[in-house]
Each structure stands twice: as C-alpha cells, then as structure tokens.
Write a structure and sequence with these properties.
globular; about 60 residues; mainly beta
C-alpha cells in the first residue's frame, strides 16, 4: 500500500489515531513524510508502518 502513496493523498496512522488525518507530502524510498492534523509533519518508515489510505469524505 505505501508504495502507491503520492503527495496530496490522505492517510491515517493505524497506531496513532490521535494524530488525526494526514496528508502525504512526499515519498522517497521507504521514507514517507506526512503532515498530520494534530501531530504536524512526521517522517514515517514505510517498512515499519502501513499507513491507511483515506478515500471519500472521512474527516
């Protein structure tokens, strides 16, 4: 899943629901930079965390 993420896509971190909705800023190799509503900009190791793609009006 993480391999198909592109800038602008909306995601959630499965282990940190308190971070809220996140928008992918970049994906370089396994490093995914996401700007979360309540946690700010976070760099995720895509080998360790499988982000959940948000499709539709889930906010």
């Amino acid at each position: 899943m993480n391999g198909m993420l592109e800038p602008g896509m909306l995601v959630r971190h499965p282990g940190r629901p308190d971070w809220g909705l996140g928008q992918v800023q970049s994906r370089i190799g396994r490093r995914i930079t996401v700007n979360f509503e309540h946690a700010g900009k976070v760099v995720i190791d895509g080998e360790r965390v499988e982000l959940v793609l948000v499709i539709g009006p889930e906010r």
